[in-house]
Design a protein that fits this description.
homodimer; about 140 residues; alpha+beta; Nuclear Transport Factor 2, Chain: A; 6-stranded mixed β-sheet; 6 strands; about 30% helix
Chain lengths: ~140, ~140
């Protein structure tokens, strides 16, 4: 197990996922990055668990006029056997505010990834919260 | 590596940490459950990184009159080599509200743990956000 190369591969995969999510077109492509049992915890909302619920969640977000999501992961930490990992990220979600003007909420996330039997990394847990308010 | 027994050991250790934190007396005892490079992400606040910053954070929280924190972890998932793990938890933080009456904020957390060279599990990442508001 070449952990350094596996770490780079995971970060590259996450960056492809971020690019696809930012484009906001390919729902099935976006869904393919999660494990079948993935759990996503949007702040202040019920957890979203499993592919059917995640599909509704992604479709709902992409249907919001002006919705845009981006993230960048800076660190990937892998178990020594290269089977489990976590990434630290910063993200931004843009949506129209009460006056219709776009508002971007910035946060930081931890995602947990499993390398599944087919050798591919998929995200099993996604938890984030808000950055401090701008001074 | 008996993963089932390691998983139970980790959950028991987390439960001891929660009990100690809930008692709110033993700052050094609470700190001992984090790795030296641990990163904690309180919602809407800057990340708290490393033991000196965590000591100030814990001391500051415990100095708030009426402060009380509890959590319960329901799931522990370990890498096959038993070196990295994540736990899913629900938590509650109680503090006096604007009128002085105690207010409890309920959330859910993901914590990431490493089994360090001495064989002990310690928490490296702690991220949580709020539950949905009560209807």
């Amino acid at each position: 197990m070449d952990l350094d190369s596996e770490r780079r591969r995971l970060l590259a995969r996450d960056a492809r996922w971020a690019a696809l999510s930012s484009q906001g077109q390919d729902v099935e492509g976006i869904l393919a990055f999660w494990t079948d049992d993935a759990q996503v915890y949007p702040p202040g909302m019920p957890p979203v668990s499993g592919k059917p619920a995640l599909r509704r969640y992604v479709e709902g977000a992409l249907a919001i006029p002006g919705f845009h999501m981006t993230w960048t992961s800076s660190e990937a930490h892998l178990s020594p056997d290269g089977r489990l990992a976590y990434l630290l990220s910063t993200n931004g979600v843009t949506m129209p505010g009460p006056d219709g003007k776009p508002v971007t909420t910035r946060g930081r996330a931890v995602t947990v990834w499993r390398r599944e039997p087919d050798g591919e990394w998929r995200c099993a847990i996604d938890m984030w919260n808000d950055e401090p308010a701008e001074p």
